[in-house]
Specification:
heterodimer, A: about 240 residues, B: about 350 residues, 16 strands, about 30% helix
Chain lengths: ~240, ~350
């Protein structure tokens, strides 16, 4: 039996709202108010640190401020990432019981396979690298992070399509510690929108899609309201972003 | 019966985790499956729910601490625990501190509670060296995230910008008179005056970014505010379109937000000119540092008295010294002086209604 899945595609590029919506969706799946979800979303230029990171240790704050790169914090672990409109974010929110027998690496592998299969549709051979990234010939195109709750889990990742890698290197202070990054567009000319379609195609084949929502405005009223509230009270505050 | 909850292994490769949050306090009741801990690893954040029902009888570690897999974090007891028992236990524990006589003497001298010192001797015995080390550590100020960021930014600005600072005295008789009527902060008067002057001197709204000149289109005046050793630059947006009263209201609202730790990005972003006020600390003049993304900053000194020649008559008047630091790559001395003169005229004229 295929698992039911809802597909959401955000039309908002605002980092603080998008991050707030991640948290709200995870909570909704956790409480059973929502089915499993795939969400595809894009942020404007931004530097997103992990839940536990110190901003000044991992991000060049000055560079961000002078170049209109918004700094924010997500609820998941992992390391700081750079987003812009050439990067596609993908998030899977699933009921935890489906993956009872999976360990964390297997979870990352499971969801990365979906992205890898979608890439295969455009003749790109990518591979999962332990613990949590996808690469082409050892070069990183996607990094993943997760949050595991009692009844739900969130695995999300980036996907570099034609992002500004110069910015990425300048924003993420520790990029030299990790494998070199590369854009998918250096292998094949492709736009973010096309890549989105390929992932949706793949998810439709693998799961039982129950609904495809193209825009945030179609979000059920309370989801939008909750995310907007959370954005205002948490994701736009200095104390959350800089963890005072 | 008691159960100890240890740092769980969330994935096979995990060696340690950080305690993000402990959701229960000592003595509190915990239901089975109730949210107890939030654990953070390099790869994932994990909500840990209690496998047992019971009462929190002991908390071994603190939030933010890094704990090895298998090390205890919390102890749950099946019977309710009363906090009185806990307290006596703590007193007993404090008596158990072992230290060398020399260490004890030194600790008494410096008023140090031995409980706070980690012993390096056999069996955790506190030595004289441990006390000396503790004293050294205590001297270091704790660096907050905000301090780190400010430090990084002012250093960068200091290395990049060729600064010039000029000073000018401004008579504040009219300003003080106005303040007798209405309690308005000095900051607000100067934000008001700067915003008006910036309309004519828009070079101050530009700043250098590498080789390029970037233009800020809005007159957003920020003011530096120091709270618990953290420095904030709080922004009054479109200050040129606001009345003195409106500026004052926003000013106090922003300060309130700092104290309540509820600042948002909107409150600190987009400043195109800055002021900093050390007048309350009786500083007469100083050389402020331009913040990145700006090309100048106006320092405001304390009110003091000077003798001036007014139409042949000597008078003693209250004055404030302004210290304007600017980026000499964009702004020249004469231009900056004219800008200061304009601020001076606005303040001295004392017509703050418009």
């Amino acid at each position: 039996m295929k698992h039911k899945i809802k597909i959401l595609i955000s039309n908002t590029f605002k980092p603080s709202f998008n991050l707030a919506l991640e948290e709200v969706l995870l909570n909704h799946v956790n409480s059973g108010r929502e089915e499993n979800i795939l969400r595809l979303w894009i942020n404007t230029k931004s530097a997103i640190v992990a839940f536990h990171e110190k901003v000044y240790e991992v991000i060049d704050v000055d560079y961000c401020l002078l170049n209109d790169i918004e700094i924010n914090r997500r609820i998941t672990g992992g390391g700081a990432v750079y987003h812009d409109e050439g990067n596609l974010n993908w998030s899977f929110f699933f009921k935890r019981c489906i993956f009872e027998k999976f360990n964390l690496i297997e979870l990352y592998k499971y969801f990365s396979e979906i992205i890898i299969s979608a890439l295969r549709k455009i003749n790109i051979t990518a591979k999962f690298y332990e613990p949590n990234w996808i690469g082409i010939d050892g070069k990183k195109i996607s990094g993943m992070a997760g949050y595991i709750k009692n009844n739900s889990l969130l695995i999300h990742g980036t996907l570099l399509i034609n992002a500004n890698l110069e910015n990425l290197k300048k924003v993420c202070k520790l990029h030299w510690k990790y494998p070199p990054t590369v854009n998918i567009s250096s292998y094949k000319s492709i736009e973010v929108k096309e890549m989105m379609e390929k992932i949706i195609e793949e998810v439709k084949e693998k799961f039982d899609p129950i609904k495809i929502n193209k825009i945030n405005n179609n979000l059920e009223g309370n989801l939008l309201k909750e995310a907007t509230e959370l954005e205002k009270n948490k994701y736009r505050t200095i104390s959350w972003i800089f963890k005072e | 019966m008691k159960h100890t909850i240890n740092m769980p292994r969330i994935d096979p490769a995990m060696e340690k985790g950080i305690i993000g949050k402990i959701f229960k306090k000592e003595g509190e009741k915990v239901k089975k499956d109730e949210l107890l801990l939030q654990i953070i690893t390099e790869k994932v954040v994990f909500d840990y729910h209690s496998p047992y029902e019971g009462y929190v009888s002991k908390i071994f570690r603190r939030e933010g601490e890094e704990v090895m897999v298998g090390e205890p974090i919390i102890e749950l007891s099946e019977e309710p625990v009363t906090l009185e028992i806990k307290q006596t236990q703590e007193i007993q524990k404090s008596e158990e501190v072992i230290a060398t006589p020399a260490a004890k003497r030194l600790a008494r001298e410096y008023g140090i509670d031995l409980k706070n010192v980690k012993g390096s001797g056999p069996g955790g015995r506190i030595t004289q060296e441990d006390i000396l080390k503790y004293i050294e550590e205590r001297k270091k100020p704790s660096i907050t995230p905000i301090m780190k960021i400010v430090a990084e930014r002012v250093t960068k600005s200091h290395l990049e910008i060729p600064p010039v600072t000029i000073n000018m005295n401004v008579e504040v008789s009219n300003l003080l008179k106005y303040r007798e009527k209405e309690k308005i902060s000095f900051d607000a008067f100067f934000i008001y005056a700067c915003a008006k002057a910036l309309k004519q001197f828009n070079l101050f709204l530009c700043y250098m970014k590498g080789e390029d000149v970037v233009v800020n289109n809005e007159i957003n005046v920020s003011f530096a505010f120091d709270y618990e050793n953290d420095l904030y630059l709080l922004v009054i947006k479109n200050a040129d379109k606001k009345s003195l009263k409106e500026i004052e209201e926003e000013h106090s609202k922003l300060i309130e937000k700092v104290k309540k730790k509820s600042l948002t990005l909107e409150d600190v972003q987009g400043g195109s000119f800055a002021i900093t006020n050390l007048g309350v600390y009786s500083v007469r003049d100083f050389t402020p540092i331009v913040f990145p993304g700006n090309s100048a900053i106006l320092g405001i000194g304390s009110v003091h008295y000077e003798i001036i020649n007014k139409n042949g008559k000597f008078e003693i008047v209250p004055v404030i010294t302004l210290s304007l630091t600017f980026d000499h790559r964009i702004i020249n001395g004469a231009y900056a002086a004219k800008f200061l003169q304009t601020i001076k005229e606005i303040i001295e004229e004392g017509k703050f209604e418009t």
